[in-house]
Amino acid sequence: MSGAQRVVFLDGQFLPAAWARVRADDRGLLFGDGLFETFCAFNQRVYLLERHIRRLRDSAAALGIAFPAYLDSADELVAQLC
């Protein structure tokens, strides 16, 4: 990963990875709650992005985790990374 800046998406914004902090009262930290979705990108496009977001939303609902509104425009967020 030489030359590439490592970034994280935290609370609705992209930040340098070194700036990322987890609050002491974060539910994921306290109880181990969490979920993730991985996907492949080709030519700056994510294959079946809508399905990934739907699956992520459904998994969050099943775990009782609030799905952030800013992820409704996940395609725009992914475009910022590509």
Summarize the structure.
By secondary structure, the protein is an alpha+beta fold. Helices cover 34% and strands 15% of the residues.
Q: How would you describe this structure to a colleague?
A:
With 82 residues, the protein is α+β, with helices and mostly antiparallel strands. It contains 3 helices and 4 strands. The strands form 2 sheets. Strands 1-2 form a two-stranded antiparallel ribbon. The protein has a two-stranded antiparallel sheet with strand order 3-4. A hairpin with a 2-residue loop joins strand 3 and strand 4. The longest helix is centred in the C-terminal third of the chain and has 15 residues. It is globular, with a radius of gyration of 14 Å. The two termini are 15 Å apart. The mean pLDDT is 83.
Secondary-structure blueprint of this entry?
Elements: E1 7-10, E2 13-16, H1 27-31, E3 41-42, E4 45-46, H2 49-63, H3 74-81
Antiparallel strand pairs: 1-2, 3-4
Molecular shape: globular
Number of helices: 3
Mean of all residue-level pLDDT scores:
83
Largest beta sheet: what is the strand line-up? 1-2
Proportion of beta-strand residues: 5-15%
Please state the CA-atom Rg, rounded to the nearest Å. 14 Å
Q: How far is the N terminus from the C terminus? A: 15 Å
